[in-house]
Amino acid sequence: MKAPKNYQPAEIEGKWYDYWESKGFFHSEPDGRTPYTIVIPPPNVTGILHMGHILNNTLQDVLTRRARMSGLNACWVPGTDHASISTEAKVVAMLREKGISKSDLTRDRFMEYAWEWREKYGGIILKQLRTLGASCDWQRTKFTMDADMSESVIKVFVDLHGKGLIYRGVRMVNWDPAARTALSDEEVIHRETQGKLYYLRYMIEGGDGYVVVATTRPETILGDVAVCVNPADGRYAALRGKRVTVPLVNRSVPVIEDDYVEVEFGTGALKITPAHDVNDYVLGERFSLETIDIFNDDGTMNDRVGMYVGQDRFAVREQIAKDLEAAGLMERVEDYTNKVGYSERTGVAIEPKLSMQWFLKMESLAKPALEAVMDDTVRFVPAKYKNTYNHWMSGIRDWCISRQLWWGQRIPAYFLPATAGGGYVVAETPDEALKLAREKSGDAALALADLRQDEDVLDTWFSSWLWPVSVFDGIRNPDNADIKYYYPTNDLVTAPDIIFFWVARMIMSGLEYRGGRPFGAVYFNGTVRDKFGRKMSKSLGNSPDPLDLIARYGADGVRLGMMLSTSAGNDIMFDEAMCEQGRNFGNKIWNAWKLVESWRDGAVAGAQPESARLAGEWFEAALSKALAQIDADFAEYRISDALMTTYKLFWDDFSGWYLEIVKPAYGAAIDPATLARAIDFFERLLQMLHPFIPFVTEELWHCTRERSADDCVTVSSMPTAAEQRPEPLARFDLMREAVTAIRAIRRTRNIPMRDAIDLKVAADENYPAELAPVLSKMAGLASIEPVSAKAPDWDAFIVKTTQYFVPVGAAFDRDAELEKLRGELKYQQGFLATVMKKLSNERFVASAPPAVVAAEQTKRADAEARIAALEQRMGSI
RNA sequence: GGGUGCUUAGCUCAGUUGGUUCAGAGCAUUACCUUGACAGGGUAGGGGUCACUGGUUCGAAUCCAGUAGCACCCACCA
After folding, report:
1. pLDDT digits over A239-254, tens only?
2. Rounded distance, CA A630 to CA A662, Å?
3. pLDDT at A4
4. Can you say whether residue A376 is alpha, beta or left, with left for phi > 0 and alpha for psi between -120 and 50 degrees?
5. CA distance linking residue A123 with residue A121, whole number of Å
6. Residue A854 has what pLDDT?
7. For A242, which DSSP code?
8. Distance (Å, rounded) from C-alpha A90 to C-alpha A45?
9. Nucleotide at minimal C1' distance from the A835 CA
């Protein structure tokens, strides 16, 4: 196959993905090879691709493709998450547009709508990942609400309940009034919020005067049951044992004393609303106070107190402030900034609410999971996240796992009728539940219809925490071939913001259900920000559409752009220029091939020039060095470094030097040996590049020679590093320096490359004589002749310790040359002085390692040689 | 309020246990080049008091302390 004339990413990318997939290259089954497994962080089933996905999935694809080419059995399991709150919210919104209210529907009917919605809009993101080139094993695609996945979740719930780790109870939880469900602590985001501090007067009973209480939430006075002061606060000593009247509500409440109250803050007097504040709840329990819940589930006022009924909490706040003012009970109002909790999903302010929920005890699960990370059984990259993890795991609290939603796995708890003694049973199936219920109640006549299943579903994370196990069916069938082969997975690539939601809990469940870590390493990728460092968001409109970027720069270009500037744990400042750089690199690869291809078409039999042979030896060593470096980079998850090494190898060493050296003169043909070697190098480079830039490398792979249908770079074997040979590389670098210096002379003397020039060399051990043919070709030399260091009026330069001269005839400027030499001499003398200072320092010689002292002595010898050469030259011109 | 991390060239970042010319890379930038793969390119350059202050050391971008700024995480001061 011959490459089209120009590099047009859009023209080549589409076909290759379909081809790879049709060949089944991405599908994995257990076999004799070592597995390499990644499970995708499942995106929301109704989500669409954003820049964060591009970063996250490109990283996974690079790792997966590299593993696949390295002889491992690579398996990247894709899938989606049912995301119960946000998906249910979307379905509710969709129904509302149709004029249907969720409350008008039965649970079953709602679920039908939700599944329909998922069928229609779910999984778009998985198609988009194909566009990016993600080499997932699509035959293994999972959804957290697939029947088998849900079964696993239920099985785990039942198991943990049986172990006594799951309990049900009334607790103060984070209530989301928009989604009308409880949330876990992790789903609450605390943000500084500009508010007001209201100072309210509570009249003292049986006397005159009042006590002033400061609050940010005056609407909650409807639920006040006490006023609390610090017993050590002398100002309020007279209040001891008194009662006060809640403003407007006119409820008589006691004054209680507790040192929880800060004397310094506000007025030192605190109103107590046990139903709507976590701390107040604690105090309420301590003092056996009543709890008065004043809100409906949606954040409006209920009829418990009979005031402001049905009005929203924030409207009530404004109204009640006015009413208090009118009643003369408002002392003053101050601007005040405090932290308020918001729902991670709906964005509304969280309402602390007392309610009956299911909880998972975390302590015993967390302990081994903490150890696994601290001792690097699970390696965190970068390691700094171990601190974060440690901190959270050490102070972990129980996990509220119930949600008042329908979209999700329904909690498998079945309540017995009061007539059968009440209580509940937990079971994987209704039949099992009935059996247990009959045993529990002793009532053999109990029917399924008598049991009432819990209405709540489980937190989405209660299914995704099983992901690395459940995608291989390791919960239901713990001994199946897949789980035994693929588990534990190798790398997890994810964002640090879900370290607690997901990563920590997967480690817990993996240890609990597989007895071992779920993955060997966790690579945390940073947040994608715009070039000003701002988070990408819809409201700012600063997030580019990834598909649009791919259309303009190619998936290859976008991937490269991302990988060029990402290091683990660091945010990525995205700039479209990065994609441009990526596309330009694709173009470079393309055109390099076009050059080689043009030689192939005109090759004729002939002997290999010495310069080409030497270049081949050198590039072989350079390639091997790069391979070793790349291996080291990947071992440390330094993906961008690995890419940069490959990038420079291709652009600078291969294109800039190797191809230029072996390039035949204009109109001349190439010899077969050189051509074969050039193609061989090019193919190996394609393989090294492929994990990063899969499409163009596959296209060109099929250009370098005739290939069978299955012969794709995607499934080829990655080249491996040969024994390292630093010597030839160092010699080549000396030669390159000479070439650069000669080019500089050409530039200053205005000598074009087509005019061959003569080079004189005062050869010493640092002169790479064996590379003379290469030097000659790259510098455009007519001849290279030995010369004594005593040089006449020629331009000169020194490489390491070797003196080179270029006769430039009348163009030689003696004064300018002397000036240059004086400058150079001064620099060298200064350098020598610093070296001598060290060497003459007895303490340095005594305490520095011998190798360092020896190095300084070498520096001294080299500097002295250069100075001698410079002085000699200054004397001779 | 507590914790963690960061601050190196215009931008994005490397710099592993202090010591080879350690002050680097890519991009951007400057000059020149309409040369025969590629102007999405080539060649040759310029550019930094390593945030600040003190300390340890023969020697500090690197270790220690403090200061300033930034980021993130955790936390029940109404």
Report:
1. 888 999 999 999 999 9
2. 26
3. 59
4. left
5. 7
6. 82
7. -
8. 11
9. B21
Q: At what angle are helices A639-648 and A610-635 packed, to 10 degrees?
A: 170
Angle at A680 between CA A643 and CA A664, to 5 degrees: 105
Distance CA A862, CA A857 (A): 9
Alpha carbon of residue A399 to chain centroid: 25
Name the pLDDT band for A621 (thresholds 50, 70, 90).
very high
Give the residue from A394, A375, A393, A371 showing the smallest Cα distance to A383. A375
CA atoms of A244 and A791, how far apart (whole Å): 106
- Which CA-bearing residue is nearest the C1' of B76? A279
Q: How far apart are CA A251 and CA A642, in angstroms?
A: 71
Q: Long-range pairs for A705-712 at CB < 8 Å and ≥24 separation? A: A705/A679, A709/A23, A710/A23, A712/A19, A712/A20, A712/A23, A712/A25
Query: Which bases of chain B are under 7 A from a protein CB atom?
Result: 2-5, 11-14, 19-21, 25-28, 35-38, 40-45, 57-59, 71-78
List residues bridging with A167 in a β-sheet.
A359
Give the per-residue pLDDT at A753: 87
Q: How far is CA A655 from CA A159, A650, A658, A741, in A?
A: 61, 6, 6, 20
- ipTM for the whole complex: 0.95
Q: Which of A463, A476, A478 is nearest to A509 (CA)?
A: A463
Q: Give the CA-to-C1' distance from A591 to B36 in angstroms.
A: 14
Which of the nucleotides lies closest to A263 (Cα–C1')? B77
Q: CB–CB of A404/A181 below 8 Å? A: yes
Model confidence at A3, pLDDT cuts 50, 70, 90, reads low
Answer yes or no: is pLDDT of A749 > 90.
Answer: no
Name the phi and psi angles at A452, rounded to 5: -120, 115
Alpha carbons A583 and A386: distance in angstroms, whole number? 37
Shortest-distance nucleotide from A501 CA to C1': B73
Mean pLDDT of A658-674: 93
DSSP state of A490: E
Write down the pLDDT at residue A125. Answer: 94
Task: Considering only CA atoms, name the residue closest to the C1' of nucleotide B71.
Answer: A571
A528 CA to B51 C1' in angstroms comes to 25
Separation of alpha carbons A806 and A798, rounded Å: 12
Task: List the single protein residue with the shortest CA to C1' distance from B5.
Answer: A384
How deeply is A131 buried, as exposed, middle or buried, from its count of CB atoms within 10 A (0-12, 13-18, 19+)?
Answer: middle
The strand ranges marked E within A544-693 are: 572-573
Q: Which nucleotide is nearest to A753 (CA to C1')?
A: B35
Measure, in angstroms, how far nucleotide B76 C1' is from residue A256 CA: 19
**pLDDT score for A818:** 82
- Which structure tokens are listed for A209? 């005067």
What is the CA A730 to C1' B23 distance in angstroms?
22
CA of A497, C1' of B73: distance in angstroms: 9
pLDDT tens for each residue of A25-81: 999 999 999 999 999 999 999 889 999 999 999 999 999 999 999 999 999 999 999
Percentage of chain A beyond pLDDT 70 is 99
Closest-approach nucleotide to residue A847, Cα vs C1': B58
Tokens of A388: 């974060």
DSSP A208: S
Interatomic CA distance for residues A160 and A505, integer angstroms: 14
* Distance B35 C1' – A711 CA (angstroms): 38
Mean pLDDT in chain A? 92
Q: How far is the CA of A333 from the C1' of B75 (A)?
A: 27
Distance of A191 CA from B72 C1′ (whole Å) = 14
Residue A791: pLDDT band with limits 50, 70, 90: low
Separation of CA A129 from chain center: 16
Mean pLDDT over A859-872 rounds to 83
Rg of chain A taking only CA atoms, in angstroms: 37
Query: How far apart are the C-alpha atoms of A639 and A55, rounded to whole Å?
Result: 12
- A877 compared with A729, residue with greater pLDDT: A729
